[in-house]
Amino acid sequence: MGVPTLTLAGGTLLARQGVSMLTCAGLEDWIASDEDNYVIRALFHATDINRLAQLRSGLRQKVLASPLFNAPRFALHLEDALQRMWQQKMYPESDYK
What we know:
Elements: E1 7-8, H1 13-24, E2 31-32, H2 35-47, H3 49-64, H4 71-90
Parallel strand pairs: 1-2
């Protein structure tokens, strides 16, 4: 857990997972919107050694305090999603929300 991986947003499973994880961890500045933006961000992050050092020193605490590691919250959201799917399957005409 040294430095986040710069991620290129896109339509693939890995791209979506990378964007999701970085967003949950509060590291949106590590998400590139396109290839040109990827190069710009890579150069920005690679050349600011002091910023990287500061990020490294608090990254573990930052990520552990983020929604990414909030297991009870995740479980509640998963439970709600499964309940909604079940309700929609069992009662497709219902207004269950």
